[in-house]
Amino acid sequence: MARKPVDQQGKHDTREAAWAAMRRLGEFTPPQIRRETLLGRDTVRDYIDGLAAAGYIEETGETVHQRGAAYSRVYRVVRDAAEAPRVRRDGTAVTQGLGREQMWRTMRILGEFSARDLAVTASTEEVLIAYAEAQTYCHYLHRAGYLAATDPGGPGRPARYRFLRTRYTGPQPPQVQRVRQVYDANLREVVWRQGGDSDE
Q1: pLDDT for 156-170, tens place per residue?
Q2: How far is CA 13 from CA 43, 49, 81, in A?
Q3: Are 55 and 93 in contact (CB under 8 A)?
Q4: Of 143, 150, 144, nearest to 186 (Cα)?
Q5: What pLDDT digit, counting tens, does each position of 94-145 carry?
Q6: Cα 150 → chain centroid
Q7: Strands of the 175-177 sheet, one edge to the other
Q8: Does the domain formed by 6-77 have CATH 1.10.10?
Q9: Cβ 174 vs Cβ 193: under 8 Å
Q10: Measured torsion, CA atoms of residues 94, 96, 101, 107, in degrees rounded to the nearest 10
Q11: Are the beta carbons of 167 and 181 closer than 8 angstroms?
């Protein structure tokens, strides 16, 4: 089942909502998670399968009678995590978006930087960040007001940016969407659109 674009999801139809419900309940059934969230049957099933394969949850061996004369397996959380695990159905970690997370975190540490500084410092052995990716991210976060340009750059001189600490909204990195807008998952709102009032 295709997921909605992130800016069209409500707070109850995300995997974060599903994981929060699992943690709160401790033991749960798939129908309980569907009732606690607005996620569909396939999405809940795939997420539970992934969490089980990754060792975050396990079956208790019990089944309970659900409404509609169906029996459902019972699961329990056995490995806690503050943030919702990002896993595929086979339990492998989803790495998409980790580069942005690393850059968002590194911007706060560096304070002032060029895109090249950011790419080098934020890269890890697991996730290497390309210079062009860092340039693009800096460009859009500058447009959205998270970064101030301290030097516009020029021939042989890269642009430099300063992270505006007053614009830190939370741990989740602002997302640059394909429709050329910036969505902040911490605020749950689009903070910049191309052609909008804040467009330069």
Answers
A1: 899 999 999 999 999
A2: 10, 18, 19
A3: no
A4: 144
A5: 877 889 999 999 999 999 999 999 999 999 988 899 999 999 999 999 999 9
A6: 29
A7: 175-177, 181-184, 189-193
A8: yes
A9: no
A10: 150
A11: no
Structure tokens belonging to residue 75? 């699961």
Pairwise CA distance, residues 34 & 21, whole Å: 10
Instruction: Specify the CATH number of the domain 98-193.
Output: 1.10.10.10
DSSP 172: S
Give 3-state DSSP helix, strand, coil % of the chain, rounded to 5. 35, 25, 40
As separate numbers, helices (DSSP H) first and strands (DSSP E) second, the chain gives: 6, 9
Dihedrals phi, psi of 105, to nearest 5 degrees:
-70, -40
Burial class (CB in 10 A: 0-12, 13-18, 19+), 127: middle
**Residue 9 — pLDDT band, cuts 50, 70, 90?**
very low
Find all residues with CB under 8 Å of 56, minimum gap 6, and list them: 77, 78, 79, 81, 85, 87
pTM of the model: 0.65
Structure tokens at 8: 């069209």
| Sign of the four-CA dihedral 115, 121, 122, 128 | positive
| DSSP string for residues in 45-102 | HHHHHHHHHHTSEEEEEEEEEETTTEEEEEEEE-S--SSPP-B-TTSPBP-TTHHHHH
Bridge partners for 161 per DSSP:
113, 149
